[in-house]
Amino acid sequence: MDGFAVRRQWPDGSHDYFRLSRTPGEAQRGVEADRRYWERGPIRPVEYRVVAISANDFELHRSRRRCRAPDCP
User: Fold this and answer.
1) CA-CA distance, 39 to 54, in Å (whole number)?
2) Dmax over Cα atoms in the chain, in whole Å?
3) pLDDT over 90, % of the chain
4) pLDDT at 1 exceeding the cut of 70
5) What is the DSSP letter of 71?
């Protein structure tokens, strides 16, 4: 399934994705819970953005921790 996911940007310039969904609204619903989870720690995401992404790219990022590729969505 191609769809929408939340791109989580980290202070070191890397990113990852979570919550692959069919609509942007479904993906967006995961942001607040994720923000609450990370607010307790010393390192927090600096940005959340809902992006269109292929299922293949989403799966590639599951094994590619802290990606910094400039061509990612």
Assistant:
1) 29
2) 35
3) 75
4) no
5) T
Strand 3-9 versus strand 15-21 pairing type:
antiparallel
Reading the block at residue 59, the tokens are 């799966």
Handedness of CA 35, 30, 48, 57 (dihedral sign): positive
3-state secondary structure (DSSP) of residue 54:
coil
pTM for this prediction: 0.88
Q: Which two tokens stand for residue 54?
A: 């292929």
Q: Is the dihedral of CA 18, 63, 8, 72 positive or negative?
A: negative
| Ramachandran class of 66: left when φ > 0, alpha when ψ lies in -120 to 50, beta otherwise | left
